[in-house]
Design goal:
Elements lengths: L3 H15 L4 E6 L10 H8 L4 E7 L2 E6 L4 E5 L4 E6 L10 E7 L4 E6 L5 E5 L6 H6 L13 H8 L6 H6 L9 H11 L12 H20 L40 E5 L2 E5 L9
Antiparallel strand pairs: 1-6, 2-3, 3-4, 4-8, 5-7, 6-7, 9-10
The structure holds a DNA duplex (16 and 16 nucleotides).
DNA sequence: ATTTTCCCCTGCCGGC
DNA sequence: TGCCGGCAGGGGAAAA
C-alpha cells in the first residue's frame, strides 16, 4: 500500500514526535511481524534505547537508535503506523505490535494482511550502507537521480519500463500508483521496453517521476483504500490521480477511454491515446 | 544477469 | 444465499 510519498509522510510525522524518546518496551502481538526474529529477542534488544532520528530509504522506514542499531519497518501492502500521545490508540483488530515510549506515547503497527515487518539491522552489521544499497537503488527525490542516471539504469533492459520502475534496486520508492501516474504524465506506454526509451522520453520520465512523487508528499499520500498517516488522517493524492483506478473514464488530456491492462503482474492504467503502445 | 512466477495473508467484490 | 475465483498500494525466493 504505502509508496514513497506515504512512507515519507509517516516519517516526517514520527520524526517530529518520537525523536529523542526512549523505548520503554516493544510489545509484539503477532510474532509473524518480527519473523524470523523472535518477539522476546527483539524486545530485549531495543528496550531502553533512545531514538536518534527517523529516516527513510525507498519504502523502508528506519528508527535509528543510540548505539548504532536500526529498527527497520516495512509496511508492505496494508501496514499502518499510528502514533498516540497517551498511548491509547483506538482498539484495533489488526494491531500487530506496539512501541511504548518514555513519555507515555506509543506507536502502534496495524496490518490487515500481515505482510508488514519490523526487524533489527544491528550496529555490528559488517556494512550498514551495503545492507540498504542491496535492497534500494537511487532515491528519486535525491540529487543522484537525473535523466542521465535513469537512462543508465534502464539501458539494455528488455523488461517493460513499468517493471523497471517498480524494481526497488533501480529506483527506490516508486510503487504501482506512482508508476502509472508518472508514465501517463510522461506519455510513455508502460509496456515499452525499458531500454528503448530515447533521450527526450528519459527526460520526460525523470521529470514526471519526481513531479508525481512530490505531489504525493504535498498531498499527504494517496488514501485509496486503507492508507492512513501516523496520526490516522487520510491523504488527498487519490483526488489527483489522472489514470490510476480510472478505467473506463475519459482521459483528462485527450478524452480517449482509459484502459486497465496487466503489466508485471500488476493492474496498470493507461491512456492509449496519450501513451502510444509499443510495436 | 535479467526476467518471470509463485508465494506469503486477509478481505472484498462480482459471477454463477 | 453461498461458494469460488480473482484482485488488492509489497517484496523475497525460486524458477526460467
Amino acid at each position: 500500500m504505502p509508496e514513497l510519498p506515504e512512507v515519507e509522510t509517516i516519517r516526517r510525522q514520527l520524526d517530529e514526535r518520537i525523536t529523542g524518546r526512549v523505548i520503554r518496551r516493544l510489545r509484539v502481538f503477532d510474532p509473524m511481524t518480527v519473523s524470523p526474529d523472535t518477539p522476546r529477542r527483539l524486545a530485549r534488544r531495543v528496550a531502553g534505547r533512545r531514538i536518534e532520528r527517523v529516516s527513510r530509504r525507498g519504502k523502508y522506514l528506519r528508527l535509528e537508535l543510540d548505539g548504532g542499531d536500526t529498527l527497520a519497518v516495512h509496511l508492505r501492502m496494508t501496514g499502518q503506523l499510528h502514533w498516540s500521545a497517551n498511548g491509547d490508540g483506538p482498539p484495533e483488530p489488526y494491531r500487530r505490535a506496539r512501541l511504548e515510549l518514555d513519555d507515555g506515547s506509543a506507536v502502534d503497527m496495524r496490518d490487515m494482511r500481515r505482510f508488514g515487518r519490523i526487524w533489527l539491522v544491528p550496529a555490528e552489521h559488517p556494512d550498514a550502507a551495503a545492507y540498504w544499497d542491496a535492497r534500494t537503488g537511487v532515491e528519486p527525490l535525491g540529487p543522484g537521480f537525473t535523466a542521465a542516471r535513469l537512462g543508465e539504469l534502464l539501458a539494455g533492459r528488455r523488461a517493460p519500463v513499468k517493471a523497471a520502475l517498480l524494481d526497488q534496486r533501480l529506483v527506490a520508492g516508486v510503487g504501482n500508483i506512482y508508476a502509472d501516474e508518472a508514465l501517463y504524465q510522461a506519455r510513455i506506454h508502460p509496456l515499452r521496453p525499458a531500454g528503448d526509451l530515447g533521450p527526450d522520453e528519459l527526460r520526460r520520465l525523470h521529470r514526471a517521476v519526481r513531479d508525481r512523487l512530490k505531489a504525493g508528499i504535498d498531498s499527504g499520500g494517496a488514501s485509496i483504500d486503507r492508507y492512513r498517516d501516523a496520526i490516522n488522517a487520510r491523504g488527498s493524492m487519490q483526488d489527483l490521480l489522472a489514470v490510476h483506478l480510472h478505467a473506463g473514464e475519459p482521459c483528462p488530456r485527450c478524452g480517449t477511454t482509459i484502459e486497465k491492462i496487466r503489466v508485471a503482474q500488476r493492474g496498470t492504467y493507461v491512456c492509449p491515446g496519450c501513451q502510444p503502445p509499443p510495436r
